[in-house]
Amino acid sequence: MFSKDTQILLCISSNVSEQENIRNLINGDRNCVFVKSEREALSLLKSRLRPSLILLDLDYPGNDYFALFSRLKSDPVLENTPVIILIPEDSGKEAFFLTIGAADVIRKPLAQEVLNRRIDNVINSQYVNDYLITKMYSYRDSLAEEHKKLVIYTKQIIKSLSSAIDAKDTYTNGHSVRVAEYACEISEAMGYDDKMLEIIYQAGLLHDIGKIGVSDTVLRKPGELNEKEMAAIKQHPIIGHEILSSITEIPLISYGARWHHERYDGKGYPDGLKGDEIPLIPRIICVADAYDAMTSNRSYRRQLSPLEAKEEILRNCGTQFDPEIGKIAASIIEKNISGEISFKNRETTFTSIFSPSNNKALYA
Ligand SMILES: [Fe+2]
Predict the structure, then answer these.
(1) Residues 92, 191 share a domain
(2) Which residues form the Response regulatory domain (predicted)?
(3) 155 lies in some domain
(4) Ligand 1 mean position to 67 CA, how many Å?
(5) Collapsing DSSP states into helix, strand and coil, what is residue 301?
(6) Do residues 237 and 352 share a domain?
(7) Which of 75, 184, 248, 338 is 20 to 30 Å from 304 at the Cα level?
(8) Does residue 340 share a domain with residue 193?
(9) How many helices and strands (H and E) does the chain possess?
(10) The predicted structure's pLDDT at residue 358
């Protein structure tokens, strides 16, 4: 199957006449190197001899062949070099050596055709193995590259969707990105890792996606909404959750849309969940959403300063907001006002959530 000119066989046998016997039996078109001992073999292998196959003649006392075999198999460079063990007819160790990783075990006396065919078989299998491993690594690398492109593409789609949401409501320009970033600041201060922060960022970007299903007249109406209009607005978490429920790989993203208008005291909508019944992500997004709404210019009420918004968040801890999250948000806002911290742009910093293994513990 493969050219024998490039094959080097290393034969380890401490008996000169047996070396001669093997030399005569092995077909002449193979390159054979003979050594007498484990020490000589290791010295050659250390000097970068890379045989296609090692023939280990087990018939002689004084050499610890098992130790040599173990050493070969534990060497990262040589572990894949196949070893054929030649054993005395009555050795009884055939199964043992096959179990510990010999490519083949041949009983003596050696027959020329059997020896050469079995050498061929082992070398051919090794070539196929090496070829498949090389191919596998190459596919893995190209898959990783494709996955990277897919992640970028997915993020771009999510960002475009969030821009579409904000474009529906002229009063809230850039709201989704700001909510996503504030929610990440809060989550980071709560000690969550990058994977969680990334999920929260995407959930924040899409929390108001349900507004796509609410009429522009209602969304853009200056001034207070009547009862019917308010009922239409209150549908947006349900519509958003339905839209995002098709993202089955990361269901947490849809939680932000469904429950970001719930209140800690149970008086929110759409489901009237209370306290810890509200999943963590919407509890965080709820505070971030309120902070951005308070500090943005809206037609129906005065824009608050960050300091006033912080006080408002603290006043509503335990009623509108989760008290722990509200206090953490207030402390971040205070640090931002004093210049101690600045809110980060996180658009390009995340890389992990679109990988196959999402942390199930986050679903609490
Ligand atoms: Fe909303």
Answers:
(1) no
(2) 8-123
(3) no
(4) 70
(5) strand
(6) yes
(7) 184
(8) yes
(9) 14, 5
(10) 44
Task: Judge residue 229's burial from the number of C-beta atoms within 10 Å of its C-beta, 0-12 exposed, 13-18 middle, 19 or more buried.
Answer: middle
Same domain, 179 and 285: yes
Same domain, 186 and 315: yes
Closest by CA position to 18, among listed 32, 30, 36? 36
Which range of residues forms the domain containing residue 189? 169-363
Q: How far is the CA of 204 from the centre of ligand 1 (A)?
A: 10
For the ranges 73-87, 324-338, 347-361, the lowest mean pLDDT is seen at: 347-361
CA 110 to CA 99: how far, in whole Å?
22
List pLDDT tens digits, range 185-220.
999 999 999 989 999 999 999 999 999 999 999 888
Residues 206, 240: contact at Cβ < 8 Å?
yes
For residue 286, the CA-to-ligand 1 centroid distance in Å is 9
Q: Is residue 153 part of a domain?
A: no
Cis upstream peptide for 270 (omega within 30°): yes
- In the reported structure, the alpha carbon of residue 208 is separated from the centroid of ligand 1 by a whole-number distance in angstroms of 5
How many domains does one find in the chain?
Answer: 2
User: Would you say residue 80 lies in a domain?
Assistant: yes
Both 250 and 125 in one domain: the answer is no
| Sheet containing 83-87, strands listed edge to edge, beginning at the edge strand earlier in sequence | 31-35, 8-12, 53-57, 83-87, 104-107
- Is there a single domain that holds both residue 120 and residue 221? no
Q: How many whole angstroms from 353 Cα to the centroid of ligand 1?
A: 24
Distance (angstroms) between ligand 1 centre and the Cα of 259 equals 9
Query: What's the CATH number where 186 sits?
Result: 1.10.3210.10
Sorting pLDDT into bands at 50, 70 and 90, what band is 30? confident
Higher-confidence position of 62 and 259 = 259
Share of the chain above pLDDT 70, in %: 90
Q: Which 3 state secondary structure label does DSSP give 321?
A: strand
Total count of residues recorded for the chain: 364
Distance 66 CA to ligand 1 centre (A): 71
Question: Does 181 share its domain with 226?
Answer: yes
**Which residues have a beta carbon within 5 Å of ligand 1, which is an ion?**
208
Q: Which residues of 328-354 are buried (b: 16+ CB within 10 A; e: fewer)?
A: bbbebbeebeeeeeeeeebeeebebbb
| Cα 100 to ligand 1 centroid, rounded to whole Å | 64
Dist. CA 179 → ligand 1 center (Å): 10
pLDDT score of 5:
57
In this structure, the number of other CB atoms found within 10 A of the CB of residue 297 comes to 10
